[in-house]
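Any chance you could type out some protein's one-letter sequence along with its backbone structure tokens so I can compare the two?
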Amino acid sequence: MHVSGLRQRFTSVILLTISSASLWLILGAIPALIFYSFSLLLLSLHHLRYLAALDEWLQTSAPATSTLPNTTGAWGDVFTRLTRLMRSQSQSQQQLSTALERLRRATSAMPEGVVILDESDRIEWCNPVAEQHFGLDFNRDTGQQITYLVRQTQFAEYLATRNYSEPLIVRQSRQQELILSLQLIPYGDKQKLLISRDITLLERVETMRRDFVANVSHELRTPLTVIGGFLETLSEEDQTGSKIGKRALTLMTDQTLRMQRLVEDLLALSRLENAQNQVREGNVNIVEMLRELYHEAQSLSAGRHHINLKLDTDAQLRGSADELHSAFSNLVSNAIRYTPGGGEILLNWRIEGGQGLFLVQDSGIGIESEHLPRLTERFYRVDRSRSRETGGTGLGLAIVKHILSRHQAHLEIVSEPRNGSRFIARFPENRLIIAQDNPMPKQP
């Protein structure tokens, strides 16, 4: 069809040229040129007519379905091919529109809110759930900056930092009872999906759990103190002469002390989880703190381990001295508990990559890789019998994780069975306080 159309287009021009050449030979040059020019004018008018018909046809609202102009020859082939092409394009567009509509209906039915943001964080689309969560109106707010409508300082900072690995928990200002979990997901050409989930009920349950644990722990503290005091008195007076009685007193005293430690850890964890309990920040002298911890570790080890303290910087930290002491103490005591006698333990404070780094390294029994992601969970134990022997409560690393999180730091754990463990607390650069002269601190 394409080759035939080309032949039809040039046949008339070839015949016209041959006819004009024949007239040239018979009548001379002038009549031949007049005939040739007049014929070309008629041919041009013929094409202009169909070009106008093509333009009029293309300007219709639906050229693919409208009536074709009455044409023959090459122009008929052109109109036929254009019609087929536009029908195919119309079908593809209809299929895309149908798929997009199905996707929008499916997204609208999701229990989560979904907002599509462009590269400038302007709203391109949102589903009805997102309209409820953020107080948006899709028809009114399309093209608006999301930060103009979601007026949350935390959200603006979350959007600006471009670190979307963890969701952001916010309390919606328009609805004080609504608590949302927000997650930004980059995709496509610098676009983002903003996913919002209503976690109000979950937060209420979590609050009830925290309150219950805190209240029960608080109520247990007094009776345990009384029991412990009487057991200590009985043990000192040694009123039972039998070995069984002495053994029973010893076991009761040990278990009471263990329960007291558990209650204290539960109360400490409850305080850390309380959002209203803000960090009381100050300048923390880490060098002096680690020297104290070093001497405490020597006392706890009772000479069974080789403990070294390496101070590579005298940089201080901005934070809570009590909380940081608790976190570091937990890491050090764990290393002593789970390292056999004769093992080595290293405490190190240094700056690495612009971050403050506190390291506790031991030559202990190590941990299997499948346990590492869950070590900071409450009451998670790698070996329950071993934990009972060492007197751990199962809350130490959970407390460490919460304290570091409150200081924008994070905990890294590297360990292999029989090759020891490394616990690394990394603090961001904005938490460091570095002296101008930065003299190297004296080793203990």
Q: What stands out?
A: The chain has a mean pLDDT of 80.
